[in-house]
Description:
This protein is mainly beta. It is built from 4 helices and 14 strands. The strands form 3 sheets. Strands 1, 2, 6, 7, 8, 10, 11, 13 and 14 form a 9-stranded antiparallel beta sheet that branches.
Amino acid sequence: MKKATKKNKKLLKVVTAVTALGVVAAVSFSATFAYLTALSERKTNVFTSEGIDIEQTESNWNPKKDHIYQPGSEFDKNPKVTNTAESKANTFVATALSFFVEISQSDYNDASADRTANPKRYRVVDVDDNGKTVRKYYKRIGMSDFTSKYATLENLDSTNWDAAGVAIADSAIYYYCGKAGTGKLEELYPATETNKGKQTTETTELFTGVKFLSEGGAMGSATGPATVGGNSIPDVKIVVTSFAVKAASYADVPAAKTALENLIRGHINEVKLDGEVEV
C-alpha cells in the first residue's frame, strides 16, 4: 500500500464488504425451476491512511447459509457503519451500492467496445464447481435496472440516508445524514464507552434485506433478466462499500461531500469480486 500523502490524508478510509446473494440456474424459464447451490464468501478490503477507523457490519447476514434464490425469495442483509477509531476523529460517511449480474460469454465478447471504455464494468470470475473450475462473466448495472428486473432493497432508509443525484461507476451513493437532517451530514463519534449512548457512533441500517421479484412480474417478463447459457435467472452479486472522511478537515457539507465523492471515484473500481481474474 502506498504511503499516504498530504493530498490523500483527507481521504481516510474505505471498508468494503462483498457478498454474493445467490447462484442459480433454471433449466427453463417457463418450466419448473431447478437451482444449483453455491455461496461466495464475504470479503473485506481496507484502504486507509491515518486517524480514522470504521467498520461495516451486517449482523443479520449469514455467510454460512446457501443463498440460492428463486422468484420471490427474501434474504436478510442489513449494512451499517461504526466509527471504531481509538482517536477523537469524528467522521462523515457515505456508502456505495454496486450490482453485478451474470452475462453469457458471447455477451461479454460482444461488449468489447464498452469493455474498452469501462473495463471495470465487466468482471471475469473463476468458481469451483465440485472440484472443477468454471469461468463466469459479470456486468455491473445501475440500481434502477437491478431493482426493476431482479430484486428490491427492503426498508431502504431514506430518512437517515441521502441518495446522491448522480451514480459513480454505475453505483448508487448514499450519504449518512442521520439527526442532522436531509441535505446535511451527521458526524459519527468514535465508539468509546464515553461516547456510547451519548453521541452517534454508528449509522442506521441502510436497508434490512433483499427481496427478489416474483415469478410473473418483471422476473418473468420480456423486459426481465436475460438468459445465461439457457438459464432463465442469472447469478447476482451486491457489493456494499463504505467510505469515511475526517469531519474536522472540511469547512462545510459541500466540501465534505466532494471529498467523499473523490474517495469513492478513487477506490470503487479497486474492489474485486470473489474469484475474480484478470483477462
